Amino acid sequence: MARYWLLKSEPFKYSWDDLNAEGEGTWDGVRNHRAKNNLQAMEVGDQAFFYHSREGLEIVGICEVSEAGLTDPTDETGKWAAVKVVPKTKLPNPVTLKQIKAEPALEDCELVRQSRLSVAEIKPEEWSVIMSLAGVN
DNA sequence: GCCAACGTTGGC
DNA sequence: GCCAACGTTGGC
Question: Which nucleotides of C are covered by protein (CB under 7 A)?
């Protein structure tokens, strides 16, 4: 069964629009062990929210893992992981961090608990809560 | 192996 | 731009 994730990016480095312009993006440059573990746990077909950090502070779209289990091409030691993603859906209503924090059902998600984690897991029930906030059925 | 100092991330 | 949270480094 597919799992759900949240991918964080600073929009002035790599935004949702950049991903759409490219059609497929490689998620690399992660240098955090917990985030790396999450990357390695991803499988092709898993869905992930695309979150804009520092600017925007909202979930703007949904992408899907198109290649999993890659080695980070930006790292010479070969120790870090990467995946490839393709954009799927732009959210009708972007879900802001403020909304997420105001929602009791989401207070335990990794995004809230560990705000500096760049790749976080989203539980299925949390996924559906966010989807309804986003106006997606 | 502990922990203080330092660097980085990210919300505000 | 500030600072809190977290990760990493390095002295002991």
Answer: 5-8
A106: region left, alpha or beta (phi > 0 left; psi from -120 to 50 alpha) = alpha
Residues A3-50: tens digit of each pLDDT? 999 999 999 999 999 999 999 999 999 999 999 999 999 999 999 999
Domain extent, residue A82, equals 4-134
CA of A116 to C1' of B9 (A): 6
Domain count, chain A: 1
Residue nearest to nucleotide B10 (CA to C1'): A54
Task: Residue A75: give its domain's CATH number.
Answer: 3.10.590.10
Q: What is the pLDDT of residues A58-88, one digit of tens each?
A: 999 999 999 999 999 988 788 899 999 999 9
